[in-house]
Amino acid sequence: MTGYFEPLTVGKIGLPNRLVMGPMTRSRTPAGVVTELTARYYTQRAGAGLIISEATGISEIAQGYADSPGLYTDEQVRAWRTVTDAVHAAGGRMFAQLVHCGRIGHPSLYADGGLPVAPSAIGSGEQMFTPEGMVDRPVPRALTLDEIASTVGDFVTAARNAVDAGFDGVELHAANGFLLHQFLADGTNQRTDAYGGTIANRIRFVVEVVGAVSDAIGPERVGLRVSPGITFNGMAGAESDTAELYPALAQALSAVPLAYLHVNELITRDTTRLIRAAWNGPLLLCAHPTAESFPSTPAIGRPALEEGLADALVLAELWLANPDLVERVRTDGPYNTADRATFYGGDQRGYTDYPTLAD
């Protein structure tokens, strides 16, 4: 049986344990530039087998939330370097999660005040928080073929920037209702060209992004995150063929020796098993096999790890509240409780002030 504390290799990186810190948006990067506080937050959690950063935009039009970071300007790259240097000095390993939010955007986030983009002109029906209050996210405009190609290029540029910023690799965000996911789902992708319709067409954009980024920085530095059946960001009912879609994507990517595939499971254990059967590389799992398994814990994930369904467990909320989570798992707790009121925005409170066992 595989345990939490056995080493694992993803790509060419050795992980000392199989407890991964999942990506969590914290909305504490004014103007998209991380700060010294960001460095302190991640460095406190350097004991993770791997840290996956919060979702980080690949371009201005990729942004979907205020005060979320980017990797598309020199200033952003320099700022992230202070984070990765500190994490590495503390013995950690860190991938940057790269995202294009697609229709989960708003004109107020862009200098030109234009519409967000998506595979099709279908709105999310969601709202966004602004300093002036909640505002409706507009119906996006559909990307042209030339814009699809240039977006692939934006992912490549951001991946190269991530390497320059000192990250050990990148995770491409094809989950949670963002652009790559919007192309996968038939409810948000109603294109009639080579990027829409059949499963083979709907996975095309994701496969192209993965291939281009792998060519640019090496597949051993690239992971991909998916979230079969998620309802977040207006995706309820958006996938009519989840059980066929994700194994097909995994099979299409199996020829590429990626660092890992990251599955955010949402009461979709049967689909997780189908993905595992189609995927021949490391599989990272944020385990939610039942409606009672949110947020995920080591105990919830243990069966998947022991049976080989997952190679490592991705945890989020527990890492947020327990910077020394590895040690707490070794001692079977106790665990701090996360303060949900401080999840998004603010200062060090609920960010870098959670006590460790030593405290």
UniProtKB/TrEMBL annotation:
Gene3D superfamilies given in the database record: Aldolase class I
Native source organism of the sequence: Nocardia acididurans
Short name of any one Pfam family annotated for the protein: Oxidored_FMN
Protein name: Alkene reductase
Domain NADH:flavin oxidoreductase/NADH oxidase N-terminal per the UniProt entry, residue ranges: 5-331
PANTHER family hit by this protein: NADH OXIDOREDUCTASE-RELATED, NADPH DEHYDROGENASE 2-RELATED
Signal peptide: none
